[in-house]
């Protein structure tokens, strides 16, 4: 069941990131998140109420801390998506997000069967392969990369890795309420960022306008919230290292959608990465 839940989370995250990135490109990261995060909070609140459980302070606090990290990651991620190719940004973020939970899981004594371990390693390799972009070798290009997509993608991925770890630490004795705490943390970070920019007299950029763009933002936020729920269920049904790595395969979806919508070319190494990802998932499933 952990495999199905985690892969479903990856699918939802992948579509949500693509849609959120599309909105951010037309507006800004913060403007997109002011639509995505509130609707996500509504979605998880309804899910928590329907799912039962009690809003215990401890799990809520763990969820809130996870949400603070996830909120910072979302701002960095959406900014990266607005400034760099989706086919590069999403995989870099995912690789950083996968490594930390795997390290924490191993440190906690998690042990995987041989075939599952090989599958997890293949998935990590796949994320790395899909993230490779063509380099032009110039010093000016290197300077641009330090100030754009890939670096911010790595920052966002680290924040997401912390989010994955803290949600696992929240436990599963309180239903879905830790996810509600996480979305409140997301919202607080976004509001703080907006207030910071306003206080400094800086504009927030073009507003999200038009039914299509607003609809995409709302759908992105809803899918992201649903992915949070699926990951939370997955990580409490199985191992942290396994759930996090499978969930972190979401770039495959984002890359494919970007290929279709924006004609972003898949390099040969990225195609190999997708095949390696499929092999890794197959081994995990069989194991």
UniProtKB/TrEMBL annotation:
Any transmembrane segments, and where?
Answer: 6-25, 32-54, 60-81, 88-106, 112-130, 151-170, 176-199, 211-233, 239-261
Q: Does the keyword Lipid metabolism apply?
A: no
Cellular component GO terms, alphabetical: membrane
Going by the UniProt record, its keywords in alphabetical order are: Membrane, Transmembrane, Transmembrane helix
**Domain of life from the UniProt record:** Bacteria
For this chain, the family text in UniProt reads: Belongs to the EamA transporter family.
> What is the name of this protein?
EamA domain-containing protein
Which organism was this protein described from?
Actinomadura geliboluensis
């Amino acid at each position: 069941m952990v495999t199905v839940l985690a892969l479903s989370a990856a699918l939802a995250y992948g579509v949500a990131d693509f849609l959120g990135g599309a909105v951010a490109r037309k507006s800004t990261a913060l403007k997109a998140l002011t639509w995505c995060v509130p609707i996500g909070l509504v979605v998880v609140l309804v899910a928590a109420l329907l799912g039962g459980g009690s809003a215990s302070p401890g799990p809520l606090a763990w969820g809130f801390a996870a949400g603070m990290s996830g909120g910072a990651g979302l701002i960095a991620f959406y900014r990266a998506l607005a400034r760099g190719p989706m086919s590069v940004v999403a995989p870099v973020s995912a690789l950083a997000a996968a490594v930390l939970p795997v390290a924490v899981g191993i440190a906690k004594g998690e042990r995987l069967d041989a075939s599952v371990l090989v599958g997890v390693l293949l998935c990590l390799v796949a994320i790395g392969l899909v993230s490779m972009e063509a380099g032009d070798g110039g010093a000016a290009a290197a300077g641009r990369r330090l100030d754009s997509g890939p670096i911010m993608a790595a920052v966002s991925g680290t924040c997401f890795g912390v989010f994955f770890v803290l949600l696992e630490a929240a436990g599963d004795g309180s239903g879905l309420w830790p996810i509600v705490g996480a979305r409140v943390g997301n919202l607080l970070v976004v509001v703080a960022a907006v207030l910071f920019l306003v206080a400094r007299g800086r504009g927030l950029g073009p507003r999200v306008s038009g039914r299509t763009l607003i609809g995409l933002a709302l759908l992105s936020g809803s899918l992201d919230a649903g992915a949070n729920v699926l990951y939370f269920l997955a990580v409490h049904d199985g191992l942290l290292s396994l759930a996090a790595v499978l969930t972190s395969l979401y770039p495959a979806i984002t890359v494919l959608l970007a290929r279709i919508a924006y004609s972003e070319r898949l390099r040969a190494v990225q195609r190999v990465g997708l095949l390696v990802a499929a092999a890794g998932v197959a081994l995990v499933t069989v194991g």
